[in-house]
C-alpha cells in the first residue's frame, strides 16, 4: 500500500492502493470514474483506453506506480462539455449499439487525431485495430473519425 | 409483483401537474390504457407509462431492456408518432421491472419490436385523442374539427392552438377511450426516419451506467472461482492466506464454487489467485477430439428424432440420377459481450434487490425468488444499460449466483466475472454437425432432400426442420440426434441458425452447381413450386422471400459482375425477417479478399432507419467475424481459449464494404437484432468457392487446415 498523487483530467487526486493496482481499477473502484471500461484485463480489447501524457494506453495493464507523475486523461475529461469533435461525430453518425466499447474507441481515435489530424483509412485502421466491438460498429467508427477529422 | 410505492411516486412526480397514461405493452391479455394518478390503485396493472408534462414535453418510460438493439430509442419513436409530438420534446426513461401482469420484458429473439408495435401505437394514439377531447371541450367545438401537429392541438377554423402541456391537466380528468384509430402509414412523419440513439451523449462522455458501473453504499465486490473444467466439482479449498490479504472480507463456498469477497476488484482478484482449491471429477471431461469422434459416430449410429418428413426419401434416393452429400461442422462459441457478466444483489431478510445488465429480468427475478425461497413480490430488479447480450444475459445463472452469495454473506455485493471467467464459464453456442443429402432426378430436379443435425446440448439443431426449400421438395427427411454433455449451452445470437444457415446455404449452392443451375434462379423456381404445389406446410412467406432475392440480385448485378469479381449468394428466412445477400470476392496474390457484401432486408416497416442499418451492418460484421475466426475448443472439459489474446475477434481492419437495401412493404415490423447474421457465412463461403474452387464446410474458415484463407480479409 502506498499513497499516490494523480493528475487526472486536470485535477489532482490522492489515493492509497497497492503499487501493482492497474490504473483502470483505481479509476473505477477508488475514484468513481466508471467511463473507462473493463473488457479483458490483458491489453487485448481496448475498452480501457486512456491517455497518459497524450498517448493512448491500456489502463488495465498500467500499474499505478508507473503513472503517478503522468498527466492522465479519461473519457470523462476528453472535453469539458462532451463536445470534442469525436464525441459530436459519434452522435451525428449514430455509432453506438450497446455502447460499451465506445469510450475506448473514442480515446484511441482522439490520440490518433492529435498526432495525425487528417488520417487515411489505413491510419484509422491501424490506430483502432486494438479496439474490439462485439456489436460490429466498425463502419460507423471509421465514418465518425473521418467526419471529426474534417472539422 | 406489485408496483412499489416508490416507483410509482417516481412516475407521478415526473408528470408534475401533467397527465399520466398507463398502458400495457406485450401483454397477451389486452388491457386498455387508463389515466393513472397517485390515488388510482389501477396503476399497478400497467407496465408502461406515457406522461404528458405541464411544460409540453412527454416522457416515455421504455419498458424493455436495452441491449444495444436500439429500442430505447425506437419504442418511444413509435409512441411519439401516434402522439404527434416533436421528437425533441420527448424524453425517454428506462422503466424498472414492475407491474403485476408484466408479460414480456425480454430482449432476445429479435422479438422486442414485433411484440410491442401495436401497443405502443395505441398508447400514443389514445393520449392524442384525449388531448384533442380536452381541447374540444375547452373551445366548445366538435372534436372532429380538432387536429394535432407537433405537440399542439389545433382548431384550424378559428386558428387557435393549445400545447399538449396546457391540456394535460384537463386530459387527466377524462376516461381513456377504447379502440382509437391509428395513423395511416402514409402519414408517418417520424417512423422510418433516422433518429440518433437517445443515450449517445451519455455513452460518448462515459456517463452511461452499465451493470459493471453500478455502485451502492456499502457494496462489496466478489469474484467466484467456478470449476475450471466442465465435469469437475469442488473437493476442498484453503483460503487462509487469501483471507489475510488486504481488502479481503471473506472467502466462502457455495454450490460447488468458492467466492472471494472484498473491498475492491483488484484486491479480490489477487486474493482469488492464491486461494488453493482442489477439484475432483464428477462427470466425463470432454475434449474437442472427443466431440469430433462423437459427431461422426452419432451421424451414423445415433437414434435420430424425426423433425419433418414428406414423401419417401428412401425410395427416391434409390432411384436418383445423382446424389449429392456434404457434412458441415461448427465449434462452441462464447458470447463475448464486451461487458463481462456481473450483477449486484442485496438480500436483506426475505427481500432482495437486484441491479444490473439483464436481458430477461422477469425470469431472473423468479429464479432468484425460488433459489432464496422468498416471495417473488419481495424481489426487485433494476435494469442498467447492457454492454451487449447476444443471448448470454437471457440465462439467469449469474444473477442467481449473486443473490445466493449476498444471502450467504448478508451484505450487498456485486459479483464480477473476469473475461477469463466469462469466456470459460459456459452457456455457449452449441457445437453441431450436419449432414445434407440431395437426390436429383434425370432432369436435375431436386426430388429428395435430407438433413440430419447432431448437436451437443443443442436441443433441436434443425430448428423444426421447416426451412426453405422444405415446402418445395417432394421427399424430405429432417432429423436430429443429441449428445448430452457437461458443457453448458444456451441461445447465442440467432440461435441454431447462426450456423445452420451457413450449412444449408452452402449445400444448396453445391446442389445448384451439380444440377447445372444458377443458384438464384434455382431458389426462385423452388419458390414457384412452393406456391403452386406446396409439399406439406410452408412456414415462410413466398412473396417476401422472392422480393428480397430479386432486390439483392438487381442491386449487385448478379451474374454480370466484372471479370475477376466472384459473387456468392444466399437467402434466409431469418427470425421472422427475410434476408438475401451477395458477397464479392477478388483474388489478390492468389488469396481471396472479401470486398463487398450486398444485403437486402425485409423486416417490415422500419422504425428507426439509422438504428436498423446499424443492426444489419453490425450483424454482418459479427457473422463474418465468427464464421472466419470464432472457435472455442476444449481439453479435458476446460475451454482452451479464455481471453481475447487467444480467442480471435474481427477487427476494424477486416471489414468489407456493406451495402444494405430495405424492402418497403408496410408490413408490421418483424425485428432486426439477429436476422442478417445467419446467412452471411454461406454468402461468403459461396463466393470463396467461386473464386478458389474450394468448398468450406467447417467454421471457423480460418484454422490450421485452411491456411489459404489466413489472409482472407
Ligand atoms: S480491458 Fe484493457 S485492453 Fe481490454
Ligand atoms: S457497441 Fe457494443 S461492443 Fe461496441
Question: Can you characterise this structure?
Answer:
The complex is a heterodimer of chains A (151) and B (713). Chain A is α+β, with helices and mostly antiparallel strands. Chain A has two domains: 77 residues, Ubiquitin-like (UB roll); 65 residues, [2Fe-2S]-binding domain (DNA polymerase, domain 1, Orthogonal Bundle), CATH 1.10.150.120. Chain A has five helices and five strands; from the N terminus they run ββαβββαααα. A five-stranded mixed sheet of chain A has the order 2-1-5-3-4, sandwiched between helices. Chain A is globular and about 45 Å long. Chain A starts with a strand and ends with a helix. The model of chain A has no long low-confidence stretch (mean pLDDT 97). By secondary structure, chain B is α+β, with helices and mostly antiparallel strands. Chain B folds into four domains: 28 residues, no CATH class; 159 residues, Aldehyde Oxidoreductase, domain 4; 148 residues, 2-Layer Sandwich (Aldehyde Oxidoreductase, domain 4), CATH 3.30.365.10; 261 residues, 2-Layer Sandwich (Aldehyde Oxidoreductase, domain 4), CATH 3.30.365.10. In chain B, 30% of the residues lie in helices and 25% in strands. In chain B, the strands form seven sheets. In chain B, strands 11-12-9-19-16-17-18 form a seven-stranded mixed sheet. A five-stranded mixed sheet of chain B has the order 2-1-3-4-5, with helices on both faces. In chain B, strand 17, helix 10 and strand 18 form a beta-alpha-beta unit. At the A-B interface, helix 1, helix 2, helix 3, helix 4 and helix 5 of A face helix 5, helix 7 and helix 16 of B. Bound molecules: FE2/S2 (inorganic) cluster (2 copies). The site of one FE2/S2 (inorganic) cluster (FES) has 12 residues of chain A, from loops.
Q: What sort of overall outline of chain B do the alpha carbons produce when their principal axes are compared?
A: globular
User: How big a fraction of the residues of chain B is strand?
Assistant: 15-25%
Q: What would CATH call the class of the largest domain in chain B?
A: Alpha Beta
Briefly note the structural class of the backbone of chain A: alpha+beta
Count of domains of chain A: 2
Task: Count the E strands of chain B.
Answer: 28
Which small compounds were modeled alongside the protein?
Answer: FE2/S2 (inorganic) cluster
Biggest beta sheet attributes of chain B: 7 strands, mixed
